[in-house]
């Protein structure tokens, strides 16, 4: 793309109404190709969103030392999982990338050094949900990595710095699961249906507490989540699926509203709870 085209693209990002922000509980990779209650809700959300100029996704499945942003023209579809049917490995999400959004993200964030990445692509935390929300794969997509050396506070602060992108037509999505403990996955019967609605008591307790704190705008408690007790410690044994939610709530503005979707638990120890932050109507 030449400099004139780059300038026109950047100009097109200016002065838009603030885009919504999403946190999406992505759950099983099979949700990318299955017709189920979660994927149908992703379809419905995609139809109600304003059409974005581009998408910036923070996925639980890209952890790095340092903060990276994908900057290639055509990101590959990464099948970063094992033991699933052949149909899932054949699935592709050929959305274009956006070196322009990568540069805009780097320019916007002042307190954290961001480097360009040319090798990663779109992992299943990103493409599994976008394949359902934007099935035409015609919106440019960029991923921002999770620096595993940073504190929860640092991730939240980085999320806040992304706020100007909302007014440039960029849809920011955090993708993870706020309750995510694969070691304690439990199936209520022998059919092993991962998406069957079922929750252990501690998972119900932790999920309800997270929602209460989100609704109360108690971000300090959500950042210091290990201090919230045993249920939360079981819900978040490792941080990577929880941190994308902190990016999302960090972007909430005073006149934004919060709504929830796919607010269910599966396999005992995961919740699909997702939320939309948007300008109050």
Share in β-strands: 15-25%
Q: Figure out the total of helices.
A: 10
Which consecutive residue ranges, at least 5 long each, have pLDDT under 50?
Answer: 1-11
Q: Compute the CA-based radius of gyration.
A: 18 Å
Number of distinct beta strands: 10
Largest sheet: 6 strands, mixed
Give your account of this protein's structure.
This protein has 281 residues and is α/β, with parallel strands linked by helices. It has ten helices and ten strands. The strands form three sheets. The protein has a six-stranded mixed sheet, sandwiched between helices. A two-stranded parallel sheet has the order 3-4. Strands 8-9 form a two-stranded antiparallel sheet. Strand 8 and strand 9 form a beta hairpin. Helix 2 crosses helix 5 and helix 6 runs parallel beside helix 10. It is globular, with a radius of gyration of 18 Å.
SSE blueprint and pairings:
Blueprint: H1 3-12, E1 21-25, H2 37-48, E2 54-64, E3 67-70, H3 86-90, H4 99-108, E4 114-117, H5 124-133, E5 141-147, H6 152-161, E6 170-176, H7 201-215, H8 219-223, H9 230-235, H10 243-250, E7 256-261, E8 265-266, E9 270-271, E10 274-279
Parallel strand pairs: 1-6, 2-5, 2-6, 3-4
Antiparallel strand pairs: 1-10, 7-10, 8-9
Outline of the structure:
The protein is of the alpha/beta class and 281 residues long. The protein contains ten helices and ten strands. α2 packs across α5 and α6 (152-161) runs parallel beside α10 (243-250).
Tags for this model:
281 residues, alpha/beta, six-stranded mixed β-sheet, two-stranded parallel ribbon, 10 helices, 32% helix, disordered N terminus
